[in-house]
From TrEMBL:
Single GO BP term: system development
Keywords for the protein's UniProt record, in alphabetical order: ATP-binding, Cell junction, Coiled coil, Cytoplasm, Cytoplasmic vesicle, Cytoskeleton, Membrane, Microtubule, Motor protein, Nucleotide-binding, Phosphoprotein
Binding sites annotated in the UniProt record for ATP: 442-449
Cited InterPro entries: Kinesin-like_fam (IPR027640), Kinesin_motor_CS (IPR019821), Kinesin_motor_dom (IPR001752), Kinesin_motor_dom_sf (IPR036961), P-loop_NTPase (IPR027417)
Compositional bias ranges of the Low complexity kind: 687-705, 723-736
This protein's name: Kinesin-like protein
Membrane topology term: Peripheral membrane protein
Region (Disordered): 682-757
Any GO molecular function: ATP binding
Residues annotated as domain Kinesin motor: 359-682
Length: 757
């Protein structure tokens, strides 16, 4: 701008000079006119005329030069404008360069970003691909992503190349423009130097003229010419300054252009390097991309083939499974058939075993002499055993030795376990769906409760039977599902009481099932499902507690009542669909002593009558069953009525006859044993055992039996409860108090904590 202002000052000076020149010319014309008028007859008029002519020419030349100068000025102005334009273009070029630089930076930034993205995507894609090798369902998605991303990368590269191309084109246009400007500048410089040359020549001529004028003595002209020379000198100086300015501008321009060119070149170089880097990256990426594409195609093929292969594999697997299922199912059917056959066989065998042992089995257990009894006068032991035959018992009665043959005789030292061993086959029958009755029969204090319930430290049949049921049920568990329920009932004075109910005083009744099945049931009878020994103990505790709350003296009361533990075992075989239902009746009968001996009166007499009635009814029922009477008098007592379905049909019965070894109890022992022998000869059910019948007939002719007949006590003609019933009130042992006392002590032991309540 300073240079521009400088140019404007020169123009002003030029204008001033021109106006002064114009003034001088007017003054010259005026002086010429004066000279013409005043010097009409001057001797130097010819010289003056010549000078005038010369002056006119000079004026003309001067004007011509002025015109040239004006043209030069015009040219200078034009050049100045061109320089300004050049400067503007330079500025624009610098601006564009900046823009280009920015664009380049952006492009390089974009490139680096895209490179980073590409690298990270490539890494991700590689990881995804490696994962895809294991995870087939995602392969398609990842390969798709890789495809899309590689296309995006390509596109970004293309865009960067396009931008680079455009920048190069712009740069070449700028270069072309610069070349043209340079050319114009050179031309203007050439014309300017020509003009300068011409000016110098003119000046020389002018100096010549001036010296001539000085020589001629024309001071005015000399003065004016010298002025013109001064002006010209000034003009020349101004022009020199202008040229110097232009030169410096030119140099500046060249320098700027050079710098811009160098910068552009270095930037171009950087861009080229970047491009080369990008190309290199692309080149390095291409193999990876090819590998990826190859992997992708491979995976794609695998994925495409996968459904078909899967379907094929599934079909094959299905076929194999169907085949295996078919084989397994046929094998299973075969096994099931065999299993059913084996089960039936086992059941039949077991039943046969039980049947061979006898559907009614009579065992005898002799209790030991208790500690308190050894000192008594009549504490003599009258029972002896056959060491070679465990089915024989000898009883010394008034000097005579009576022999009793039963199914088995347990001596005094027999343990609870040994007793139960003889019983457990019946428990198993119950699981198979048979009804079983186990009775403990005998006079008061003979050990019935001990055998059935036992003592806490040595449990009796009741608890052992339930434990065995649990273990058996557990063994059969995979196929069979069993439900074991228990009820406890007491029959006292022909009244049925629910021992597990909320109200133990409530009397129960026995009724016919309304479904017409002919089955009996006890409405309101409480049943508990038991699954463990703890459950049994809880149920027994509750039963004992309820039994104790209903009476004033539990020991006496329990001696005069029948206690029944009814266990129902219902089974279901899920594989065969079989159902079984068996009932195990564990009965602790009331004392069987004869009323005649006790001499009881009042309520005691009624108790004894009720006991005898029910025991006689039991004898009558067994007798009727043995004799295969069309009518079996089950309804004659609550006991037989309640046990009707467990005594008839294919049921099993076990009578455990308890005997006291004491001499004082000998007559009751004889009665009990005779009753047992009669019961033993009875057969229950349709599948009558020939062996049993044969045994019965052989018993009647056997010497042992003869000995029984021979050794029968003279006082008691028929040892069945029926006969005892008929002779009720005639005899009841006066020493019945002794066993009662013993029973009390045992009950206290057996019931333990329950009796406390
Ligand atoms: N086998 C035995 N071993 C040891 N003690 C026994 C045996 N049998 C019975 N006793 C004992 O004899 C006594 C009387 O037995 P238990 O009370 O069982 O007789 P019971 O026949 O049930 O009498 P009740 O008719 O009065 O109920 C008890 O003290 C009992 O412990």
């Amino acid at each position: 701008m300073e240079r521009l202002w400088g140019a404007t000052d020169l123009e002003k000076q030029l204008e001033v000079l021109e106006s002064e020149n114009q003034q001088l010319k007017q003054e010259l014309r005026a002086s010429q006119t004066q000279t013409t008028c005043s010097t009409g007859h001057c001797p130097h008029s010819q010289d003056v005329e010549a000078l005038r002519g010369e002056l006119c020419r000079k004026d003309e030349e001067c004007r011509e030069r002025e015109r040239r100068l004006a043209a030069l000025e015009q040219q200078v102005q034009e050049r100045t404008g061109a320089v300004v334009q050049l400067q503007q273009q330079l500025e624009e070029a610098a601006q564009r360069r900046q823009e280009l630089q920015q664009q380049l930076e952006e492009a390089s930034c974009l490139r680096s970003q895209s490179e980073e993205q590409l690298t990270s995507r490539l890494r991700d894609a590689e990881e995804a691909l490696s994962r895809q090798a294991a995870l087939t369902p995602q392969v398609k998605y990842v390969t798709k992503t890789v495809e899309v991303e590689s296309a995006q990368c390509k596109q970004a590269l293309m865009e960067a190349q396009g931008r680079n191309q455009a920048l190069q084109e712009q740069l070449s246009v700028q270069r072309q423009l610069l070349r043209e400007l340079e050319q114009q500048l050179h031309e203007s410089q050439r014309s300017s130097s020509q003009l300068r040359q011409q000016l110098r020549t003119d000046r020389g001529r002018l100096y010549g003229l001036l010296s001539k004028a000085v020589g001629g003595g024309n001071t005015e002209v000399t003065h004016r010419l010298s002025k013109i020379l001064v002006y010209e000198g000034e003009m020349e100086r101004a022009q020199g300054q202008l040229e110097a300015e232009m030169q410096s501008l030119e140099e500046e321009k060249n320098r700027v252009i050079e710098e811009a060119f160098i910068r552009a070149e270095s930037e171009m170089k950087a861009v080229h390097e970047n491009l080369a880097g990008v190309r290199m990256n692309l080149l390095t990426l291409q193999p990876a991309l090819r590998t990826l594409t190859c992997d992708y195609n491979c995976l794609k093929r695998q994925v495409q083939d996968f459904p078909y292969m899967l379907e094929k594999a599934i079909t094959e697997a299905k076929q194999e499974i169907c085949q295996v299922i078919g084989e397994v199912s046929s094998a299973n059917q075969e096994l099931l058939r065999k299993y059913k056959r084996e089960m039936n066989l086992r059941k039949k065998c077991h039943n046969e075993l039980v049947r061979l042992k006898g559907n009614i089995r009579v065992l005898c257990r002799v209790r030991p002499v208790c500690a308190g009894e050894t000192d008594a006068a009549d504490a003599k032991n009258i029972v002896t055993f056959d060491p070679d035959d465990d089915a024989v018992l000898y009883l010394s009665n008034k000097g005579k030795l009576m022999t009793f043959e039963l199914d088995k005789v347990f001596p005094t030292q027999a343990t609870q376990g040994e007793v139960f061993q003889e019983v457990q086959s019946l428990v198993t029958s119950c699981i198979d769906g048979f009804n079983v009755c186990i009775f403990a029969y005998g006079q008061t204090g003979s050990g019935k409760t001990y055998t059935m319930e036992g003592v806490p430290e040595d449990r009796g049949i009741n608890q052992r039977a339930l434990r065995l049921l649990f273990s058996e049920v557990l063994e059969k568990k995979p196929d069979w599902d069993y439900k074991i329920t228990v009820s406890m009932v007491e029959i006292y004075n022909e009244t049925l009481r629910n021992l597990l109910g909320d109200n133990p005083n409530e009397k129960l009744d026995i009724k016919m099932c309304p479904d017409g099945s002919g089955q009996l049931y006890v409405p309101g009878l409480t049943e508990f499902t038991v699954e463990s020994v703890e459950d049994i103990n809880k149920v027994f505790d509750l039963g004992h507690m309820n039994r104790a709350t209903a009476c004033t003296n539990l020991n006496e009361h329990s001696s005069r009542s029948h206690a029944l533990l009814i266990v129902t075992v219902a089974g279901f075989n899920s594989s065969t669909g079989h159902r079984t239902s068996g009932k195990l009746n564990l009965v602790d009968l009331a004392g069987s002593e004869r009323i005649a001996k006790s001499g009881a009166e009042g309520s005691r007499l009624r108790e004894a009558q009720c006991i005898n009635k029910s025991l006689s009814a039991l004898g009558d029922v067994i007798n009727a069953l043995r004799s295969k009477h069309s009518h079996v008098p089950f309804r004659n007592s609550r006991l037989t009525y309640l046990l009707q379905d467990s005594l008839s049909g294919d049921s099993k019965t076990l009578m455990m006859v308890q005997v006291s070894p004491l001499e004082s109890n000998v007559s009751e022992s004889v009665c009990s044993l005779k009753f047992a022998q009669r019961v033993r000869s009875v057969e229950i059910g349709p599948s009558s055992s020939s062996r049993r019948q044969a045994e019965t007939s052989s018993t009647s002719s056997s010497p042992t039996h003869d000995s029984v007949e021979l050794d029968s006590p003279p006082v008691t003609p028929v040892p069945l409860p029926i006969s005892r019933a008929s002779s009720a009130g005639s005899t009841l042992s006066s020493n019945s108090k002794t066993p009662t006392t013993r029973r009390r002590s045992h009950s206290q032991l057996s019931t333990g904590e329950q009796t406390v309540t």
